[in-house]
Write a structure and sequence with these properties.
By secondary structure, chain A is mostly helical. Chain A is about 65% helix and about 5% strand. The longest helix of chain A has about 45 residues, at about 935-975. Chain B has one helix and no strands. Helix content of chain B is about 90%, strand content about 0%. Classes of the chains: A mainly alpha (about 1300), B mainly alpha (about 80). Chain B: InterPro entries: BRICK1.
Chain lengths: ~1300, ~80
């Protein structure tokens, strides 16, 4: 819009109305106090500035308005002085004092002191002048009103109330002056410096200075001066009695709105009575004369034992009474009694508060829905009245709850706990700590939080409806006022005119003229009521207009005061006007007077709303800070009988503020965080809002930068704590939840069955609402709570993953199971949290934790390899029966493996809680001590193709060095120890003979010392590697099959459907395909995606389909690689002399293996470790693999020494001891190993010759005729191998 | 005759005062409505900005991650 365009009023207004229709979505649930960046409060209170406009009013009350205006200004000034005193912080402590008179810079110090303190001292001087002025003014007013003539006249409620406010002000100022010793200290510092410098030269200044120091030093100076002045006035006690009575009456009929007004009334009663009671006047006598009602005041004092005086200063009003001259405890049975005041117990109020809250909230909700769904220009008079009443009731409820909170807080401040009453309170606890931190029970804290939440919550709701409320309020007030003035007052007017009651008539006319807003601008002069005549038969009808505006504050005051003068019943014995008005009209006027009391509050709705919910004083603690004198005293806190030496331990610590642990807002916030109470969790932001209240108060009422700074500093600290604790808690909670979900259900049932305590699922908590908070308002800042928590939880998640891997690194390879479990739980936890928080991708987090982003291999892969190399291969033995590797139980073959210990972490970083940690560690301990298929599966999952490849590659390198190093060396050595020729002895020798023969032949090998200690271990390690590779591939294949199965539906691979008779398979298949067409990736992407996407999906599909189908095998590759390591000629020996094959010559590896097999087939005695126990099947695997890879399998099977013994023994079935060896036992062992060997051979051949066809291979074999024995003996000297298989 | 006239004048002034105050009230209400609008606009914007910020943060972190993946320690500039 161009700046020059003129916008008409109507356009502007409709523009504003249109704003309402703009949708402004905000999805966060409202769990905080009223958030507002811009506050707009229109203040129409003129403080009687416009009084001269209402010339039609009674002159006396216009004059009175002038007085009121002046008095109000004084009251305001008094408030400023009170703030000045309350927020006074000691300056002199910070000012250096000259240590001696000789100090050279002392003049400078004094000059600076004067310079610094002069403006402060000026404030004190002003304060002294002010109190003088105020006391004078007050006395003047009292004297004027106590004049015998004046006493006969009526004194308005507003006037009395203003006097009451004065009394209250004196009480407050006096107490503040008494309390602030720092004020006196600062002044004396100033005075000393000023006297030294002779700044105060003239006698008048000196006198003033003297007066000021006397004024400051004299306790109760203001109070006493007031009393002194009053006692000079005759009949002052009656006026004060009126003030006290009006306070009692207003208190009892709840004619107040804000808590501070309520408390003011009580203070006025106490201080007023104290002022009245003197030599001349005895309040007990006044009571007897019914001028006072002590019994009623007694009840009030009991119900409200302690009222806030100013900030954190409290006062017990009854104490004033106790200090008065004629105090008689019998007159005050309740207050003197020891029964606890209901003020001290929040719990008794709570049910009522809850009920009121629910009732009111539901009513408000109903009304709010009605307003938002049905649009109305303006409601009917009745509707407006109802709404205005609803608003007033809301304000009153808020005020009541706020009072309950502040009153409890006050009572607690005045009744601090100690270590006798509260066991948790330490003996040396500070004063403030005893008044706050240790002074509330758990229950009370919860109740406080709840009430605060109700206050703040309702405040938000009411503030949202402010425009609706204020609209109705203004219309209602206008209507009520005009109806009353124009219609309601007609009858009394007619009566007064008719009966010639001129005074009454003139007052009524004044009322009408002051406030009536006539339809046609002027009063209806023809109205018969004006002339005291009857209305015509049809009635006298005229229209009373309606407007959306309330009366001005002065107007309302005039109307109310004039009406009050009509109905007042106590005007010093003089005949009252009351008697001349008919009862029914009196009731109407009274009623109007009563209702209109609240109009000022309602007209300034937003201000009233704020005042009713102000809990700022829960933070202020200037009084307690003053008491600490800027330091904390640390006494000896060792528990023992304290003696003189302990005094040396007393230290002073500088203390300018209390720690947050003693601060109410934080105590309450922290209480929720500590207890983790789900029903309170959503309230957690409300106690924090108390800081907003306090900061606002510091800025707008106290107007002190340092107070705001202190609030801000505390908020900074608390909020950090809050976010820290909250995110820790949330992370812990979700971790627990994930771990509980992940925990085996049957395990849980079993645990319950045997009575083992296992925590149920964590108690559902309402963190979601908190996690949705994206703009929390705190001290004018908007905080994205979600973001802060996300940051922290991201870090926690990362830490958690890091810790999982660290734990794995701290243990052996069997811990891989636990690692996977931890990763899964973390994944689940991540998934649960991701619903609310924008966490990093889990996989990238895992890769980061695994150090796998920059480096090709992660920590897990490296540790798996490390463990395989240094622990698994050297220390584990394999057993095919269980398909497990188990740790060798005897001596450790390798050096102890050194592993870094995992860092100590809280439970939240592992399984979430202590019981869960216990449950899981019990479960996973079952997987320790062996390495089986489960471990291989898990390793496959964790390592992935790349990891498996690198682990195997590295293992092959180790094996290579093993084969080409140690094994080759041993082989060379042992080959030389082998007999050159070792024939297969004939059967005729009998099996014992054969055994003895071999025993003799192989004696060197048998005696070889390193065979069992080193050689076999080398073979075992080699064998373990082979088995490891085989099992890994098996596990990998199974994983892949699962993958394929899961991928099948997306690749249009569907299981064959079941067909009943008569059904066609093809039709069914087609139908199924059509049904799941939406799942098929490739056709869908081809149809919907780009060409590039289609290509990618096709390639992916191809890869998935063909991964297993072309028969790639890792193990085959491994075997071939192993084969390439066996390149030394010693393995195969020289070519056979006969050109065909070596038979009896011991030159090939299989001969050596036969010898070794003989060694390990020899049975051991009972106490020795068996070969199986020590080396497992890795040994056999190593031997067999080498034999197969060297192509010596058939020769080995045919010519093996042990096999020969077995064959012979099978024939003669002999059993005897040969050289200490049990033949039968030996043969049993041989048989077992023979079976094992053939199994191993079968497996190896399956992999190695997978491409070859058996029949084909036969064709390529050159067939040799069987050799003929030189003696031409037809008997064969060895058994046919196929026979061997059969036996 | 002058007395009623003076009274009439005052009555007219008072009525004018009612009128003026009603006018002021209309303006006040409108300002209040604008304030309310600004406040809810503020909240709504903060919500949306928070959402946007979140998305940007995710992207930024993803880029960081990817950058780390593709480079070997040095940073892309």
């Amino acid at each position: 819009m161009a700046g020059t365009d003129r916008v008409s009023m109507n356009d502007a207004l409709s523009n504003v109305d249109v704003l309402d229709e703009l949708p402004l979505p905000d999805e966060q649930p409202c769990i905080e106090a009223q958030p507002c960046s811009v506050v707009y409060q229109a203040n129409f209170d003129t403080n009687f500035e416009d009084r001269n406009g209402f010339v039609t009013g009674i002159a006396k009350y216009i004059e009175e308005a002038t007085v009121h205006a002046n008095l109000n200004e004084l009251l305001e000034e008094g408030q400023e002085h009170a703030v000045m005193l309350y927020t006074w912080r000691c300056c002199s402590r910070a000012i250096p004092q000259p240590k001696s008179n000789e100090q050279p810079n002392r003049v400078e110090i004094y000059e600076k002191t004067v310079e610094v303190l002069a403006p402060e001292v000026n404030k004190l001087l002003n304060f002294m002048y002010f109190q003088r002025k105020a006391i004078e003014r007050f006395s003047k007013e009292v004297r004027r009103l106590c004049h015998t003539e004046k006493r006969k006249d009526f004194v308005s409620e507003a006037y009395l109330l203003t006097l009451g406010k004065f009394i209250n002000m004196f009480a407050v100022l006096d107490e503040l002056k008494n309390m602030k010793s720092s004020v006196k200290n600062d002044y004396s510092t100033y005075r000393r410096a000023a006297q030294f410098l002779k700044v105060m030269s003239d006698s008048q200044t000196l006198q003033e200075s003297q007066n000021l120091s006397m004024f400051l030093a004299t306790q109760n100076k203001i109070r006493d001066t007031v009393k002194e002045n009053l006692e000079k006035i005759t009949g002052y006690e009656e006026l004060l009695a009126d003030v006290v009575n009006i306070s009692v009456q207003m208190f009892e009929s709840k004619m107040y709105l804000t808590p501070s007004e309520k408390h003011m009334l009580v203070k006025v009663m106490g201080f007023g009575l104290f002022l009245m009671d003197s030599e001349l006047c005895n309040i007990n006598k006044l009571d007897q004369k019914k001028k006072l009602r002590i019994d009623r005041i007694d009840r009030i004092f009991k119900n409200l034992e302690v009222v806030p005086l100013f900030g954190d200063m409290q006062i017990a009003p009854f104490n004033y009474i106790k200090r008065s001259k004629h105090f008689d405890a019998n007159k005050w049975p309740l207050s003197s009694g020891t029964a606890p005041s209901p003020q001290a117990d929040l719990m008794v109020h709570l049910p009522q508060i809850r009920e009121d809250h629910v009732k009111y909230i539901s009513e408000l909700a109903r009304y709010s829905n009605e307003v938002t769904t049905t649009y109305k220009e303006c409601g009917t008079d009745d509707e407006n009245k109802e709404t205005a009443e609803l608003a007033l009731r809301g304000l009153q409820l808020l005020s009541e709850w706020t009072s309950v909170v502040t009153e409890l807080y006050s009572w607690k401040l005045l009744h601090p706990t100690d270590h006798h009453q509260n066991k948790e309170c330490p003996k040396e606890a500070e004063e403030y700590e005893r008044a706050t931190r240790y002074n509330y029970t758990e229950e009370e804290k919860f109740a406080l939080i709840e009430v605060i939440a109700m206050i703040k919550g309702l405040q938000v709701l009411m503030a949202r409806m402010e425009t609706v409320f204020t609209d109705a309020i203004r219309r209602n007030i206008y209507a009520e006022l005009q109806e009353f003035a124009q219609v309601g007052l007609r009858e009394p007017l007619r009566k007064a005119t008719k009966n010639k009651k001129d005074l009454i008539r003139s007052i009524i006319m004044s009322v009408r003229e002051t406030c009536a807003d006539w339809n046609r601008g002027v009063e209806h002069l023809q109205d018969p009521a004006l002339k005291g005549k009857k209305d015509p038969d049809g009635g006298y009808n005229f229209k009373v207009p309606r407007r959306n505006v309330g009366p001005s504050s002065t107007q309302l005051y005039m109307v109310r005061t004039m009406l009050e003068s009509l109905t007042a019943d106590k005007s010093g014995g003089k005949r009252t006007l009351r008697k001349d008005i008919d009862g029914q009209y009196l009731v109407a006027i009274d009623n109007f007077h009563k209702i209109s009391f609240y109009w000022n509050y309602l007209l300034s709705f937003s201000d009233s709303l704020q005042n009713c919910c102000d809990l700022s004083q829960l933070w202020y603690r200037e009084f307690y800070l003053e008491m600490t004198m800027g330091r904390k005293i640390n006494k000896c806190n060792v528990r023992h009988q304290h003696n003189d030496e302990c005094n040396d331990l007393i230290t002073m610590e500088k203390r300018i503020q209390f720690p947050i642990d003693m601060s109410m807002p934080w105590i309450l916030t922290d209480h929720i965080l500590k207890t983790k109470e789900p029903s309170m969790m959503e309230y957690v932001l409300y106690p924090l809002d108390l800081y907003n209240d306090s900061a606002l108060y510091a800025l707008t009422k106290f107007r002190k930068q340092f107070l705001y700074d202190e609030v801000e500093a505390e908020v900074n600290l608390c909020f950090d704590q809050f976010v820290y604790k909250l995110s820790e808690q949330i992370f812990g909670y979700y971790k627990q939840l994930a771990a509980s979900i992940f925990l085996d259900k049957r395990f849980r049932v079993e645990c319950a069955a045997i009575g083992a305590y296992l925590l149920p699922y964590p108690r559902a908590n309402r963190y979601e609402t908190l996690l949705k908070q994206r703009h929390v308002q705190l001290l004018g800042r908007s905080i994205d709570l979600n973001k802060l928590i996300t940051q922290r939880i991201n870090a926690d998640m990362q830490k958690s993953l890091d810790f999982a891997i660290s734990r794995f690194e701290a243990g052996d390879v069997t811990n891989v199971m636990e690692l996977e479990g931890l990763l899964e739980v973390n994944r689940l936890c991540h998934k649960l949290l991701s619903k609310w928080l924008a966490l990093d991708d889990f996989d990238s987090m895992y890769r980061e934790a695994n150090h796998n982003v920059l480096a090709p291999y992660g920590r897990v892969t490296l540790h798996v390899f490390w463990e395989l190399n240094f622990d698994f291969l050297p220390n584990y033995v394999y057993n095919a029966a269980t398909n497990r590797f188990v740790r060798y139980r005897g001596i450790s073959f390798a050096n102890q493996v050194h592993r870094d210990r995992a860092p100590q972490m809280s439970h939240a970083y592992t399984w979430g809680s202590k019981p869960l940690n216990l449950a899981y560690s019990t479960q996973y301990s079952q997987y320790n001590g062996f390495v089986g298929p489960q471990h291989f599966h898990t390793m496959c999952k964790l390592l992935g193709y790349q990891g498996i490849a690198v682990v195997m590659e590295e293992l092959l390198k180790i094996v290579k060095s093993l084969i080409q190093g140690n094994l080759l060396q041993f082989t060379k050595t042992l080959m030389s120890a082998m007999p050159k020729i070792c024939k297969l002895p004939r059967y005729d020798y009998g099996s014992p003979g054969v055994l003895a023969f071999y025993h003799a032949q192989l004696n060197d090998i048998l005696q070889y010392p390193d065979a069992k200690t080193e050689l076999f271990h080398n073979f075992r390690e080699f064998g373990n590697t082979i088995i490891f590779c085989l099992l890994m591939e098996q596990a990998l294949s199974q994983e892949e099959v699962c993958d394929l199965l899961q991928a099948a539906p997306f690749q249009n691979i569907l299981p064959r459907p079941y067909c009943k008779e008569g059904e066609k398979l093809e039709v069914k298949q087609k139908r199924l395909e059509a049904k799941y067409a939406a799942l098929q990736i490739v056709p869908n992407i081809e149809k919907l995606g780009t060409a590039k996407q289609a290509m990618i999906s096709k390639e992916g599909d191809l890869l998935t389909r063909e991964r297993l189908c072309c028969g790639l095998s890792i193990f085959e590759v491994v075997l071939n690689r192993l084969k390439s390591f066996l390149d030394d000629p010693v393995w195969v020996g020289p070519p056979p002399a006969n050109g065909v094959m070596n038979i009896d010559e011991c030159v090939e590896f299989h001969r050596l293996w036969s010898a070794l097999q003989f060694v390990y087939c020899v049975p051991v005695s009972e106490n020795e470790y068996t070969v199986e126990e020590m080396f497992g099947e890795g040994l056999n695997w190593a031997g067999c693999t080498m034999i197969v890879l060297l192509g010596q399998q058939r020769r080995f099977e045919a010519l093996d020494f042990c096999y020969h013994i077995l064959r012979v023994q099978r024939v003669d079935s002999k059993d005897e001891k040969v050289k200490g060896i049990g033949l039968k036992r030996m043969c049993d062992r041989i048989r077992r190993f023979q079976v094992l060997n053939s199994q191993i051979f079968a497996i190896l051949n399956k992999f190695l010759k997978s491409g070859e066809n058996d029949e084909l291979s036969v064709e390529h074999v050159r067939c040799f005729p069987p050799p003929i024995h030189p003696s031409l003996n037809p008997q064969q000297h060895y058994h046919a191998p196929e026979h061997l298989r059969q036996c | 005759m002058s007395a009623p006239k003076a009274g009439e004048a005052v009555q007219k002034q008072i009525q004018q005062d009612w009128l003026n105050r009603e006018y002021i009230e209309v303006i006040t209400i409108s300002i209040k409505k604008i304030t309310d609008f600004l406040n809810s606009f503020d909240l709504s914007c903060r919500s949306k900005l928070a959402g946007l910020n979140e998305k940007l943060t995710i992207l930024e972190r993803k880029i960081d991650y990817l950058e780390a993946c593709v480079t070997k320690g040095e940073t892309l500039t």
